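seq:
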Amino acid sequence: MTTSLASKSARLNAPKSADLELAVENALAMAEDIDGADVFVTVNGSKIVLSGWLATEEEIDRAGEIAIEICGATRVDNQIVRG
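struct:
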C-alpha cells in the first residue's frame, strides 16, 4: 500500500495537538463577538472538542465556526451548552 506525496506532506505539516489547542484557545479569546472564558478546548489528533458554556446559541455557533477556521482542524465537536 502506497501513501501519496500529498498525504505525507499534509501529515508532516499538520500542527501538533498542543499547538492546535493553543491556536483555538487564542482565537476564541480574541473573538470580540463571544466571551470565551468559559469555553474549554481539547484536541485529539486533528479533531477539536469544545466544551463549557456560553450565553447564547449565536455565541455557541460562532465558537464552532472559529474553531473550524483554524488551520489543521478537520473536525469540530461542539459540546458547548447555554449557561
